[in-house]
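--- STAGE predict ---
source: upstream dedup step, 1 unique chain passed
mode: sequence only
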Amino acid sequence: MPHARLSNEEIDRRGLDIYKNIIQAKVETPENIGKQIVIDVETGTFEIDQDGLKASRRILKSNPGAAFFGLRIGYNAVYTIGGVLTRTAKPC
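--- STAGE serialize ---
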């Protein structure tokens, strides 16, 4: 379902920008590699969890209209079907 205020393209653009320029250096730690991060692209708040749905629900408690962007920390995709996750983070 589309977000009420932002297009999918805008959510992707903002999410990648926030992750790469503000969050990435803080969260790409050995204990977080492979976990999922969910970012509210309007506020910059984020949650990290093994389960992206749990992280999303925590954000929704404080901001019911959140625009989510999610990714797997240190990898090129959140999930694959018949493919391979490629690690993008340098080993710590």
